[in-house]
């Protein structure tokens, strides 16, 4: 009886804590969605600047996730195999550093690399007249810097979960390193890679701090929300935020459904 009472108390405490966390996240989001009237939402959806800003966020963030996929997966594989040796911990720390750095600091740091007087930006500007700041390339750079760790960490965990026996069997059957990577590691880590892709995309869509320093224009949805808010146009700010939230929620619910469907045996 005492055991059952303790068990009940234990799980009641756990569910209470879980409910508080869910409410803490869900309540502001629900309030944001339900606050603007349908008239305000329709007005926001019919406004050209709003449509452009949301489209920019979705397109640039998706391109960011694609780039992260092609660059991050090879890095994650090398990390999972422990091929960096004594530098393993250093590499892991460097990869995760953007998660801890304030994003305005990240934007300033990137400015000194790709800005007109930056290490790379100065070369392209002085020799070819190419300017990165204030362009889509700058937005993608900012998004990539802050979101790349999500894909690398997720893919690395997936590769680590692949049994060494599968790799040995592949080599015994005469498969090359690339064939083993492509036919064994990628399929068995697919769910982790897809989850990392989604997290990267989601993080990139919401990026503001680094983006606003490198490229106020072409304007993205978070910058549009901030711009409207600072101009005391709260109705526009709320409407754009609500529309962006609804679009993101719809996209990621659909993608999660696809991933879960593919994961079923």
The topology string of helices and strands comes to: HHHHHHHHHHHHH
For the biggest sheet, the summary is: none
| Arithmetic mean of pLDDT | 88
Continuous helix count: 13
CATH architecture identity:
Orthogonal Bundle
Shape: globular
Helix residue percentage: over 70%
Number of strands: 0
CATH topology: MetI-like fold
Q: CATH-wise, what's the superfamily?
A: MetI-like
Which class do the helix and strand fractions yield? mainly alpha
Strand content: under 5%
Q: How many domains is the backbone divided into?
A: 1
**Oligomeric form of this entry?**
single chain
CATH class: Mainly Alpha
Please compute the radius of gyration using only Cα atoms: 22 Å
Molecular structure report:
The chain has 265 residues and is an all-alpha fold. The protein has one domain: MetI-like (MetI-like fold, Orthogonal Bundle), CATH 1.10.3720. It is 82% helix and 0% strand. It is built from 13 helices and no strands. Helix 10 (190-205) runs antiparallel to helix 13. The radius of gyration is 22 Å and the shape is globular.
Question: Which helices and strands appear, and what pairs or packs with what?
Answer:
Blueprint: H1 2-34, H2 38-46, H3 48-80, H4 88-100, H5 103-114, H6 121-128, H7 136-161, H8 164-172, H9 177-188, H10 190-205, H11 209-214, H12 221-230, H13 234-263
Helix pairs in contact: 1-13, 2-13, 3-7, 3-10, 3-12, 4-7, 5-7, 7-10, 8-9, 10-13, 12-13
């Amino acid at each position: 009886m005492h055991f059952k009472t303790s068990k009940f108390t234990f799980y009641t405490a756990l569910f209470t804590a879980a409910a508080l966390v869910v409410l803490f996240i869900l309540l502001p989001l629900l309030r944001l969605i339900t606050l603007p009237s349908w008239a305000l939402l329709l007005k926001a959806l019919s406004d050209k600047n709003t449509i452009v800003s949301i489209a920019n966020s979705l397109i640039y963030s998706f391109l960011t996730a694609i780039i992260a996929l092609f660059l991050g997966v090879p890095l994650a594989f090398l990390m999972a195999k422990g091929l960096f040796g004594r530098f393993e911990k250093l590499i892991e720390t460097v990869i995760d550093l953007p998660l801890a750095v304030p994003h305005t600091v990240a934007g300033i740091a990137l400015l000194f690399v790709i800005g007109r007087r930056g290490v790379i930006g100065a070369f392209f500007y002085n020799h070819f007249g190419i300017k990165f700041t204030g362009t889509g390339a700058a937005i993608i750079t900012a998004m990539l810097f802050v979101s790349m760790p999500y894909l690398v960490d997720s893919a690395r965990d997936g590769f680590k979960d692949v049994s060494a026996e599968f790799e040995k069997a592949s080599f015994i059957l005469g498969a090359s390193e690339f064939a083993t990577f492509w036919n064994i590691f990628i399929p068995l880590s697919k769910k982790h890679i897809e989850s990392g892709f989604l997290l990267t995309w989601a993080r990139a869509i919401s990026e503001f701090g680094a983006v606003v320093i490198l490229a106020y224009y072409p304007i993205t949805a978070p910058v549009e929300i901030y711009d409207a808010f600072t101009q005391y146009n709260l109705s526009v700010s709320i409407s754009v935020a609500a529309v962006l939230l609804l679009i993101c929620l719809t996209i990621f619910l659909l993608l999660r459904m696809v991933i879960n469907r593919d994961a079923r045996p």
